[in-house]
Automatic annotation (TrEMBL):
Enzyme Commission designation: 2.7.13.3
Catalytic reaction equation(s): ATP + protein L-histidine = ADP + protein N-phospho-L-histidine
Modified residues (4-aspartylphosphate): 177
Gene3D superfamilies recorded: 3.40.50.2300, Histidine kinase-like ATPase, C-terminal domain
Coiled-coil residue windows: none
EC primary class: transferase
UniProt keywords, alphabetically: Phosphoprotein, Two-component regulatory system
UniProt protein name: histidine kinase
């Protein structure tokens, strides 16, 4: 625990494995925090004890980032503390009880094998949050993929239709945030799958969502998405999602007769 004095004991515990509701907490035996300063510790670049910070160093960003990550998972990071008795930071999140591969892929008859994905893909990413879009773009570019970013479902549809008009080059995969302004990911996916005869009706779609609940995953798959990926996203999870979505898209195109990427 960075804010605990050197050598102070700490501990963490969580709910039993397999439960849908998980609670995590971390306690320290530090100097504690006064009641009026409890929320300040979650503000970026904020420190409630400058003298202590000079001894132990720190930027005041750790808790602000941690709360944002927990918020993205649908939880809330909180603190219980008082001067002289240390602090306890805790949060509860609801996570899927399904196996990890099911949460990533939904209905997948293709098995666990990978390696069918081209080394470099052309990816269209619809994400309204600038930071998430920047992070996703960086992860994709690190993997050698080309990325075009838009901010909502309407812009994603416009980008797909624009490429169809050009009759050359196509996006290989669509990363689609579930919750966006103007047109959300669910409606966008439904319109894409309903576009019979258009090249993009069979495009592989990866759903991006901060919601880990099984019913949210089912809604995305029912709307026509292939893979459900829970934020925050890391490179390993993104690579697996791209691989599976690509292979599912090829299977769909073969069954429907729709070209996956005409003009290539």
């Amino acid at each position: 625990v960075p804010d605990a004095p050197p050598g102070a004991p700490t501990d963490a515990h969580h709910a039993p494995e397999g439960h849908a509701v998980l609670t995590f907490s971390v306690r320290d035996t530090g100097v504690g925090i006064a009641r009026e300063n409890l929320e300040r510790v979650f503000e970026a670049f904020s420190q409630v004890d400058g003298a202590l910070n000079r001894l132990q160093d720190g930027t005041g960003l750790g808790l602000a980032i941690s709360r944002r990550l927990v918020d993205a998972m649908g939880g809330r990071l909180s603190v219980s503390s008082a001067p002289g008795r240390g602090s306890e930071f805790f949060f509860t999140v609801v996570l899927p009880v399904c196996a990890r591969q099911d949460c990533l892929t939904g209905e997948d008859a293709l098995g666990e094998e990978s390696g069918g994905t081209p080394q470099a893909l052309s990816v269209l990413m619809a994400e309204d949050n600038l930071i998430n879009r920047m992070v996703g773009t960086r992860l994709l570019q690190t993997g050698g993929h080309a990325v075009h970013g838009v901010t909502n479902g309407r812009e994603a549809l416009e980008a797909l239709e624009a490429l169809e008009a050009l009759e050359e080059g196509r996006y290989d995969v669509l990363l689609l945030d579930v919750r966006m302004p103007e047109m959300d990911g669910l409606e966008t996916a439904r319109r894409i799958r309903a576009a019979t005869g258009r090249w993009y009706s069979a495009i592989p779609i990866v759903a991006l969502s901060a919601e880990a609940l099984p019913e949210e995953r089912d809604r995305a798959l029912d709307a026509g998405m292939d893979v459900y990926l829970v934020k925050p996203v890391d490179k390993r999870g993104l690579d697996r999602a791209l691989d599976r979505a690509w292979r599912l898209g090829r299977l769909r195109a073969g069954q429907s007769g729709a070209p996956l990427t005409p003009g290539r």
